[in-house]
Design goal:
Blueprint: H1 3-22, H2 30-35, H3 49-52, E1 60-63, E2 70-74, H4 89-99, H5 111-124, H6 133-143, H7 150-155, H8 161-177, H9 180-190, H10 200-208, H11 217-226, H12 230-233, H13 240-256, H14 262-270, H15 294-306, H16 315-324, E3 328-331, H17 335-348, E4 359-362, E5 369-373, E6 377-378, E7 392-393, E8 407-408, H18 414-424, E9 432-434, E10 450-451, E11 454-455, H19 462-465, E12 467-469, H20 471-477, H21 480-490, H22 492-501, H23 509-517, E13 531-532, H24 534-545, E14 549-551, E15 556-560, E16 574-576, H25 580-589, H26 611-615, E17 620-625, E18 632-637, E19 642-647, H27 661-676, H28 690-694
Parallel strand pairs: 1-3, 6-7
Antiparallel strand pairs: 1-2, 3-15, 4-5, 4-19, 8-13, 9-12, 10-11, 14-16, 17-18, 18-19
Length: 703
Amino acid sequence: MNRAHLNKLFTVLLAGVLAGLALGAAALPAALVFGLGFKNLMPYAALPESLKTPQPAQRSNLYASDGRTLITSFYVEDRVDVPVEEVAPVMRQAIVAAEDVRFYQHHGVDVRGVARAFTANRRDGTRQGASTLTMQYVRNALAGDPRLTEEQRARATEITVGRKVREMRYALALERRISKDEILGRYLNIAYFGAGAYGIAAASKRYFSTTPAQLTLAQSALLAGLVRSPDTDDPINGDADAALGRRAYVLDRMVETGQVAEADAARAKGEQLDLKPSATPNDCAAVPAGHNDWGFFCDWFTQWWNAQPAFGKTVDERQRTLRRGGWSIVSSLDPDVQAKAIEQVLRIYPVTNQRAAPTAVVQPGTGRVLAMAVNRNYSVAPNPDARQNYPNTVNQLVAGGPGIEGYQAGSTFKLFALLAALESGLPLSTEFDSPRVFVTKYPIDGGPASCGGHWCPENANPVWMDGDRTMWDAFGRSVNTYFAWLTEQVGADRVVEMAERLGIVFRSPEDARLARDGAKNWGPFTLGVSSTTPLDLANAYATVAAEGTWCRPTPVASITDPTGRKIAAGNPDCRQVLDTEVARAAADAARCPVGDQSMYRRCDGGTAEQLAPGLRRPLAGKTGSSERNATETVVAFTPQLSVATIAANPDDPRDAVGGGVQVRQIEAVGRLLAWALRDQPVLDFVPPGQTVAFQRTSPRTGD
């Protein structure tokens, strides 16, 4: 056997004997050491990944778009790592004095400490483990590594000789690999200080609302003393007197080791506890009390995160990644725009109204969601009469999701027929003499819009709507019969496909069935009979604003891992889904409903003509009313922003909101856009070419 192998064997034998002593045994038989197996006679460098590249659970923080305003945090352990250089020297001295006074003299295993523990165990019948600070770090790192299985983590804390041997060997190997200060820093970041605070950064904030760099002598001694018994000595929830007793012990040890003058220690002992506790918010229910409306955005963020394969194969894995990964997430939520959005929503309906006005604001070209507002409390508090969503709810009324299928958006869906027609080669100038009632080829089962078993929509205001129309004024005046005819020209299935291409999700099982199996005969789809959400609708119109670039709606601007590396999952997910000229032509027609004028001066009347003059910048959009005014919808967009709001009763679809609310919606959208764009340059839409405006061509599917 060569000398190197003898050294390794000696290390294992020594560690085994010391482990036996530390556990209170007289000695560890050599047979037990050998019984561990030759595979355990590993070289010093054979450390597990948990110690070579530690990944302790750290909290993830979700910030507003400014990168500073904290929305909330997500964690199973409230921890944020800090470099050891950013920890006050007095805190470093205190933890060494409290836990391992010979830390800078030994090499990972303290023979003197083991002998002392053995003597005390034999004399007093106690159980002193003689664990050095390095050994404690090894144990905590193995027990808390999310990459290990539950069984592997449990082995790190089992009370066995085998565990103690592994711990000692890893401690010896670790000290050959990294410096004492790095070990100390790792220990300070992983130790539990009680009251839910893991690591020195969380502990400094939890107990004193300060940072590790600003800790005083008294504060440092108190925190260092908590590590031994964090659950019982925690001065917030446990025994404050015990915590003060431990503080005095640590200060005495610091005097004994020459780290602190006796007079300074005496002054620190005389200080009051002077706690200034602050809790780190955890999850969406813990958004700041003054910003309860942020909860709906936060909830949608968690839905988005749970759908990202970059963070795990399953929802459970993705949640573990979020709550243990230490991510810094800058969201797309603009606090100023959100504040104005909720202010305007409450002018449509107050929280005391059972009807709701969910509203979304989306940035064209990125898909970033700047605001999500609804007149509800984000809360799980009980509701009167067992109502699901009034006045308290955590359901996703703005973006849809479990239990929320959405709302009919009426004539706003005419956009999809318009786009399908333009893409088929029809120009904006396509004329049709729109009758009061138009009998289509689409079969329908009864109802007021049935003529001999065929769908036959009629115009809401025949005097204003009937007659010869083009895409410009038919979209502006929202002429039902024109778009029913247009749908026949291009095919209902192409209209449905266009909606899906622009991000309309069919959350209703019946809508999904029709889209899948009956799209060819789904003529009424053009008039918005399918359920949708303000977010889907705002994003679909944002695609037109971005000249045909569709972006997946996203709640994030950037995601950074604990090392400062940006993650690709935080980038916009965009692609060109429309020919640029088709999108420009649709935007040109969409200027008509809101009182703006098309590039070719072809707008002649609109359903929300008061909107553009008040904004004093190029604007496009559409209004929509479902049957019997059960819901009312307003969408408006500029090249920089897209806003959609839908008035509905989420708990009772039979409760028609009535047409009068649309006036308040239009005013609210106008004020919201004016505020959000107040500091942004006035941008115009790029005019469509004369070909797409006036000439019929082959299908326009290229870019």
